[in-house]
Amino acid sequence: MANPVTRPAANAPASSAEPPVELALLRADIDRIDAAMHELLMERGDIIDRLIAFKRTQGPGSAFRPAREAAMMRRLAERHRGILPLDTAESIWRVIIGTFTYVQAPYSVHADISGGDGPMRDSARFHFGFTVPYIAHTSAEDVIRAVAESSGDLGIFRPDGAAASGPWWAGLAGKDSPKIIARLPFIDRPYHPAATPVFVIAKPLTDGGSSEVRLVAATVERWREQAREAVGRLGGEVLGSAGVRDGLSVLISVPGTVTLETLDEALTAEHLGRIDLSEIGSHAEVFVLDKPGRGG
Ligand SMILES: O=C(O)C(=O)C[C@]1(C(=O)O)C=C[C@@H](O)C=C1
């Protein structure tokens, strides 16, 4: 528990060197709360210590559990009230959770900065804090390679990034290749302080992933605009496309309830020629708030 804080006597004389009694009382309350919050964070650390021992028995790899984090961030946004901006509450908890993930198993965040370093750095710092190393790369391919060669690192890139240089998502196909495991920010709203949408990749997770949204790389012989509408009828979206030697590679997101077979049937009905589908990851549905996080 927090150390008791000595309050000034209510009838203490006001001297010019000391703040007025009312102010001193309020500051004593702030000190009490700060000490209690610090104690609670250290207690959280003790619990993480026990969690490390438990999770070690579950196998190696990243300690990141995106489904759990998405649920925690949703609850935070729902219960938040008062004058502290939600932006601040969210960033504090992102740093707490990102750092406690790091404490469990150290990792670096590799970022594709081909679309600019600033937004990616903001995103990495907002979601994972300053303790976690940030490593910049000039292409999504380099990020995917760095994550594939690491033991438990994360990679981040923009969903709309650099399709002009080819289908970066092709590097995520294949059983053991890294997969998309999250889409950040978990909570979206107008004027989010780290608004740039990013996909997070990691080596395939054995547990703790969310499959609310499924991501698929589709290679087709030819593309027709009606196919985009067919994906839309399934509740999905075409996120990007790039030419490949034998046709076109298309990045598609569909609700997790839509299987690869259902998507295959819908695309086959659009006469796209040979179709090859490969699941390249999944993530939690973005939680959208319609109010800005700055309060006021
Ligand atoms: O719940 C877990 O599995 C944890 O590792 C704890 C924790 C957290 O700090 O709350 C940290 C990392 C995970 O991504 C999710 C949550």
From TrEMBL:
Database matches in SUPFAM superfamilies: Chorismate mutase II (SSF48600)
Pfam families according to UniProt: CM_2
InterPro entries registered for this protein in UniProt: Chorismate_II_sf, CM_dom_sf, CM_II_prokaryot
Chorismate mutase domain: residues covered: 17-108
The protein's Enzyme Commission number: 5.4.99.5
GO process terms (BP): chorismate metabolic process
Transmembrane segments: none
PROSITE patterns the UniProt entry points to: CHORISMATE_MUT_2
Domain of life: Bacteria
GO molecular function per UniProt: chorismate mutase activity
Protein name per Swiss-Prot or TrEMBL: chorismate mutase
Organism taxonomic ancestry: Bacteria, Pseudomonadati, Pseudomonadota, Alphaproteobacteria, Hyphomicrobiales
